[in-house]
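Title: Prediction job returns without error message
Component: structure pipeline
Severity: low
Priority: P3
Assignee: unassigned

Description:
Job completed but the reporter wants confirmation the result is attached to the right record. Sequence as submitted:
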Amino acid sequence: MDQQSAPIVEQIVDRTLAHYNQRAADFRDATRDHDVSQNIAALLRHILAAPPYRILDFGCGPGRDLRSFTALGHRAIGLEGAAEFVTMARAESGCEVWQQDFVRLDLPDAYFDGVYANASLFHVPGSELARVLGQLRATLKPGGVLFSSNPRGDNTEGWNRGRYGAYHDWDAWRGYLTAAGFVALEHYYRPTGLPFEQQPWLASVWRRPAPAPAPAKSDSASAGAQIT
């Protein structure tokens, strides 16, 4: 982030994290039984590597989905900015959880088979989104997969009940992800089976392209090289 916007962005992040820290137990209890199996399946079915997969749960909250990935036999690592959630997620999932906020990331390169960002990336201010998406792309292995689910909107952002959010429609979201170097795999709206007006969540799945393999040398070229 640039020096002019950094103080504003940091205030946004700190205030949003404070909101979650103050309400961590209530949030955990309210979301414990949410069924996001459709989202987990959407990520996993597009990963081309051999299982078990290494998954980054980006914004893991109290750790509900870390438990789900672990139960499926994968190695899940959580990332969370709210300290109260970090403590809960470690205790309730038994998984490794990194305490990092979304605009001050420190991620290993080409490390994860999948990144699962369920109800998290909408908290990234628009001014920082391209940079954050670039960091998520870099932490995926070539060919790795990013899942995201966010409350959709009309491309506005601001404060909503104590939390900062950016609410994109499909065209705008696709533009951000494509510019960051991702390839779209699928998208859908949730909850499934309802009219569009009653589906506030936009879910999408993306791939970090793998480099094209180098062309194989022909037999004649190889023979020529040996003769010379």
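Comment from assignee: result matches the submitted record. DSSP finds eight helices and nine strands in the chain.
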